[in-house]
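Mods, move this if it's the wrong board.
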Amino acid sequence: MAGPLPLGDPAPSDGRLPADLPIDPSVPFSAYLHIPFCRVRCGYCDFNTYTSSELRGARQEDYASTLLAEIDLARNVLDEAGALRPMDTVFFGGGTPTLLPAGDLALMLGAAVSAFGLAKGAEVTVEANPDTVTPEVARTLADAGVTRLSIGMQSAVPHVLAALDRTHDPDNVRTAVAAAKEAGLAVSVDLIYGAPGESLADWEASLDAALELDSDHISAYALIIEDGTKLARQIRRGEVPTPDDDLQADMYELADRRLAAAGFEWYEVSNWARSDAQRSRHNLAYWRGSDWWGFGPGAHSHVAGLRWWNVKHPAAYAQRLSASDSPAAGTERPDEDARMLERVLLQSRLVEGIAVADLPAGNRANVAGLIADGLVDARAAVQGRVQLTLRGRLLADAVVRELTD
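Not the wrong board. Structure tokens:
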């Protein structure tokens, strides 16, 4: 399970938005549907997920009908506030969404479409464990309106998967991708690098395997050790080594070279796509500060600068909704300084970068030093944008500090 929820102001029990919220109906709207169930908890994961033994008072088979109650609440709240818009993107994340029957996912998607509408050409993504994707599941999802499957491959090397506590059969990645493509779905593959005991050769083998799948999109994330996870405890006890920053940098550079040679273009520090059309539009909505409603336990939402988050446990979530109350646990409206920091943090990671004019006025002069250090592209800066070089991508956090501190 994830750590504690953020501190914030109490959320209204009816979920109503503040009357003075500056809602812009032209801002795109997205929906995130959190499916908080996993068969096994991976040692590195700190997401708000639950195995069957941790549910205590909640049942997977009741989840879809419970989430439909929040969809009804959201429609009423957004309609009253004048913020009702069709969804540009929908994303089922988790957890493992495909642990639920595909029919349950279709039911939730249908309810969201009925409540909000779906923009023309909308992107609808479902995250999936390779072991749970069959041709029948893929066809059911495609028939329901899903357009994209994001498959958690993580690695092709058995001992690396074991280090991550991933239990799926590596051979099932290929069959899952084939089933998705046969159903007409776009395919994204997720990888993690820097696991304990993973060598550069191991990572290269995983990249080779991912490229052989001929997917449309690849995400490659450096392993981060989160407090409270099993992996963090193993490292603290000296049972496994701490990830090597230099090795992770070598792995990132290898990924960038191999993916570029295969026709992929990076568009966010950890994400590559074969074309602009195959980028994850849902994640871009987050990075560009669009509006979204997050459904499910622990899910976070954002509308016009207002943020709120739901209670974490599925049982508490269901109890709130059964009483016709909002499941929101807290809310906040970040001030301009906080919004500026977040804007720089997120937009600087994108291939188009951030406009120099959008930086804090006192930090704009620091761009020259970042160019001198090889972290920011000089030609882009002359044209008024801060765009990361390859070295800058490796040191993106340092760039953000220089642009905001």
